[in-house]
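Q: How would the structure tokens look for this protein?
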Amino acid sequence: MKHFRLSKVWIPNSFTMGNLLFGFIAIVNASQEQYAVAGICILFAALLDGFDGQIARMLHVTSKIGEQLDSLADCVAFGIAPGYLAYSAYLSNVSFSLNGTKYVPVGMFIAAAFPLCAAYRLARFNVSHDSDSFSGLPSPIAGIVMALVPIAFSNPGDIRNHLLIFVPAFIAVALLMVSTVKFSKPQAKALNKIHGLKLVLLIVLIVLLSIVLRKWLIFISIGLILIYIFTGLYSFLIQFIQDRRY
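A: Here is the predicted structure in token form.
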């Protein structure tokens, strides 16, 4: 029975490893200038990350290794991969000369904001977290935001020509991960009631909707993410005003 339980642990862990695998594949594709493919890989990583915990609860198996593995996979898929994607696609030429010959690779340091903030956010989550809300933007959401950019704008030049918009937005998303802004857990209550066949049907429904609404999927995803982010910021602002009032 003990060996059977240990084997079941690796079912959700396999999803987590798949998350890590797609993060690595995203980095490889970004290095080969396949930026849209890299973005799609990050989306697949987010999909696997969204279900590993649910499968673990469905099978009634949890492990310390699984928890740590999840954080490591998230750091690669939603920290390093988006950061490298941003650098390779848009920021590699952002630099300024120093003493006429040497140059400072500013784009490299800008891109590093993503993995640095993701790593800190995940470490803070491992130490302390609220079961009802997230403190800071979840790293998978931040990774999805970056993944949607090359999918929505297939020509990297479209972003390179508007770096004054992209760079502040990129840094803002990274900083939101390490902020203390509270973001809701809409999936916590909904998915906790979905197990077994219902979970399988939900996955199938998501895939079918992605196929049917593929032309609008990017805009729908961007819209939902923006609503999610601004809802958290709005709640934070209201709480900030109330705290200063009393």
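The longest strand covers residues 96-98.

The beta strands are 96-98, 102-104, 133-135, 182-184.

Upvote if useful.
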